[in-house]
Design goal:
CATH topology of chain A: Rossmann fold
Strand content of chain A: 15-25%
Number of helices of chain A: 9
CATH architecture of the largest domain in chain B: 3-Layer(aba) Sandwich
Number of strands of chain B: 16
Strand order of the largest sheet of chain A: 2-1-3-4-8-7-10-9
Number of domains of chain B: 2
Largest sheet of chain B: 8 strands, mixed
CATH superfamily of the largest domain in chain B: Thiamin diphosphate (ThDP)-binding fold, Pyr/PP domains
Number of domains of chain A: 1
Distance between the termini of chain B: 51 Å
Number of strands of chain A: 10
CATH architecture of chain A: 3-Layer(aba) Sandwich
Helix content of chain A: 25-40%
Oligomer: heterodimer
CATH superfamily of chain A: Thiamin diphosphate (ThDP)-binding fold, Pyr/PP domains
CATH topology of the largest domain in chain B: Rossmann fold
Strand content of chain B: 15-25%
Shape of chain B: globular
Order of helices and strands of chain A: HEEHEHHEEEHEHEHHEEH
Chain lengths: ~290, ~375
């Protein structure tokens, strides 16, 4: 192979997302073909094209592969404990309501060990955006079954296939009170950026589920090829259905995937509800909470 | 700094320890509390829930104690002083986040109104069974500070102290009450705000571009910043370097963990707080903390009446344990008596520091009530030799 193929072109302009990333922490830990980095790229693009004051944007992650996102974004960022990104974010947001708080974590982290916090944050309509990367398994620990693993799929702790019914996450979020609910896959990069921008502009609990390939531990074990094969699967089997009834968007093994913006409604946020209610109830005695 | 007068109810009150703890937190500048109901601690948050809307604070009843113990840490990084309040089973659930606070150096206060365990145990009755858990309950090596009040007045005074220590040393502080102190009603004097000393968080003031979140400048405690101030901080429970970046190496672990321990260990003499009553020249020294310090008094007085030289050492700061002091006493006195509302916890620390020089007699109690002073008296008499 000719040597010049390996020469680095130094005059290539740097990628515009770099300013949103901690480039001094590259390379990242994610595997080749993993979809998490793709979604971070989309997140960075969303920040780039938004008019948010980035000093006031904070990212909170739990533990796991997606939990590492907090460590790579060049923002105030918190890598918390397993499952507890949402309650940490709750404290952060309530302490300083000026902040735009984004929780960025995985399916196991947010809906298994963190499931209780997830449903209560939806119910309270806390003003935060939750970006959940769903790779169908626990990646960091070696591919164990998750509450999102499709039935019959093989995981390291379901060697004969999974017989538990997984969560339908958009339905869960909507029924618990989220005001914005969308689902995309790592194939839908422009849709993801747009959804993140929309969600961050939305007051209240906004939730985006993004399906992302885990070639190392999900695809390989289920003989689904590599990351690219999963992208082809997303491309060929995704159906955009904005406003779809979330009851109908559950995912089976290698099934059709309904994507789109399912929910976009208005409801007072936790802090607005608190301030309005106390003002009515306590009158002048109440000191409106401003952080 | 002096306390913000807005929250301070200056005057004489007749309130219980739980309510006094709430007032202490307010005086200390706490404006974020997350909690979950559990007897016998609930009255603290009930009063907080009533008081905070009137003084610009925010209380949230979380979905469980795990959530409460991490929500307060989010609030601290958002700039607030924060605490959570619980009792035995809830305290057990909070352990992981005590470790997170220690590792990330997040100043916060954990109030544990102790009840008898293990498990659900005796929910409405006192014990001191969580003293070792307070020190060692989270996994790995770290250090904390723990205080033990013996009256509603001290629940007020020492809650302020707990916040001040948390802020000064950037460490989680355990406020180890018990059901008896929590539910005991007594006179509590709340001084004017300008007589209450409050330690304000040490925020970084240098040039932004030189800021490293865990750079201590040769000291043991780095200054803090908060989210939203443009420092792009990264905070992680992973082993981290001065930039706050994860660095999973022995070298980084070796730099970080000893500092987390040393910032308490090297300041142990400054943090130490205890009361001595005729300890100098005593033959037998009774070592107590919390409510047990009060049940020991009739026993000590009776023994003194009978001509014994009995000293009373009451620990207010239990952790870090006053090793030096106990060693010194061990070389003067002839025995220790340690009454505890448990089957023996702090007694092991006394034994460790006495190092076989003098005998140490535990007066155990399963909890559910306080000691009969007679049992403490009998132990003193047993040790008179």
């Amino acid at each position: 192979m000719p040597e010049e193929l390996y020469e680095i072109e130094t005059d290539v302009p740097s990628n515009t997302v770099e300013e949103f990333l901690r480039m001094d922490r590259m390379p990242h830990i994610w595997c080749p073909g993993c979809g998490i980095g793709t979604t971070v790229n989309c997140f960075a693009h969303a920040l780039e094209t938004s008019d948010l004051n980035l000093e006031k944007v904070a990212v909170v992650s739990g533990i796991g592969c997606t939990g590492r996102v907090a460590g790579y974004v060049n923002l105030d960022s918190f890598h918390t404990t397993h499952g507890r990104a949402i309650p940490f974010a709750t404290g952060l947001k309530l302490a300083n309501p000026e902040l735009k708080v984004v929780v960025y974590s995985g399916d196991g982290d947010l809906t298994a060990i963190g499931g209780n916090h997830f449903i209560h944050a939806c119910r309270r309509n806390l003003d935060m955006t939750v970006i959940l990367i769903n790779n169908f398994i626990y990646g960091m620990t070696g591919g164990q079954v998750a509450p999102t693993t499709p039935m019959t799929a093989t995981a390291s702790t379901t060697p004969y296939g999974n017989f538990e019914q997984p969560f339908n996450l958009p339905y869960l979020a909507e029924s618990c009170g989220a005001v914005y609910v969308a689902r995309w896959t790592a194939f839908h990069v422009r849709h993801i950026s747009k959804a993140i921008k929309e969600a961050m502009a939305k007051k209240g609990f906004s939730f985006i589920e993004i399906l992302a390939p885990c070639p190392t531990l999900y695809s390989r074990r289920n003989k689904l090829g590599d990351g690219l094969d999963q992208m082809v699967y997303y491309q060929e089997n995704s159906e955009i259905k904005h406003g779809a009834d979330t009851k109908t968007v559950g995912i089976d093994f290698q099934s059709k995937i309904i994507v789109g913006k399912f929910v976009d409604v208005e409801r007072p946020t936790y802090l607005d509800a608190m301030n309005d209610y106390y003002q009515k109830r306590l009158g002048d005695k109440y000191i409106p909470y401003k952080g | 700094m002096k306390a913000d007068p807005k929250g301070v109810l200056t005057g004489a009150h007749f309130i219980d320890g739980d309510h006094a703890c709430c007032e202490g937190a307010i005086a200390a500048g706490c404006r974020f509390v997350a909690g979950y109901p559990i007897t016998p601690s609930t009255e603290v948050v009930e009063r907080i829930a009533e008081r905070f809307p009137l003084i610009g604070g925010i209380f949230i009843q979380m979905e469980d104690e795990i959530a409460s113990s991490i929500a307060i840490q989010g609030a601290v990084w958002g700039g607030k002083k924060a605490m959570t309040v619980t009792s035995g089973p809830g305290f057990s659930l909070m352990m992981e986040h005590i470790g997170y606070a220690a590792m990330t150096e997040t100043p916060c206060v954990f109030v544990d109104v102790q009840r008898a365990g293990p498990s659900t145990g005796l929910p409405t009755q006192p014990a001191q069974g969580d003293m070792m858990q307070a020190r060692w309950g989270s996994h790995g090596d770290y250090s904390i500070i723990a205080l033990s009040p013996n009256s509603p007045q001290e629940c007020f005074d020492l809650t302020i102290k707990a916040f001040n220590l948390a802020e000064r040393y950037r460490v989680p502080v355990m406020f180890m009450m018990d059901e008896c102190v929590g539910h005991m009603t007594e006179r509590v004097i709340i001084p004017p705000a300008d007589q209450i000393n409050v330690f304000e968080r040490d925020f970084y003031k240098g040039p932004k571009e030189e800021f490293l979140p865990y750079h201590t400048n040769g000291k043991l405690i780095p200054p803090m910043v908060k989210a939203g101030d443009g420092y792009n901080i990264h905070v992680t429970g992973l082993t981290h370097d001065e930039r706050g970046y994860p660095n999973i190496t022995v070298a980084t672990q070796e730099k970080l963990i000893p500092r987390l321990i040393n910032k308490i260990k090297m300041n142990a003499d400054t943090i130490a707080d205890y009361r001595e009553d005729q300890v100098e020249g005593a033959d037998i020294v009774v070592v107590t903390y919390g409510i047990t310090s009060r049940t020991a008094i009739p026993a000590i007085e009776q023994a003194r009446k009978e001509g014994l030289k009995v000293g009373h050492l009451r620990l207010i700061v239990v952790w870090p344990f006053p090793e030096k002091l106990i060693r010194e006493i061990a070389s003067e006195a002839s025995a220790f008596v340690v009454p505890e509302l448990n089957q023996g916890q702090i007694v092991y620390e006394v034994e460790r520091c006495a190092a076989g020089k003098v005998p140490v007699e535990l007066v155990p109690h399963v909890g559910g009530t306080v000691h009969n002073p007679k049992d403490i008296y009998n132990a003193i008499m047993k040790m008179k030799g």
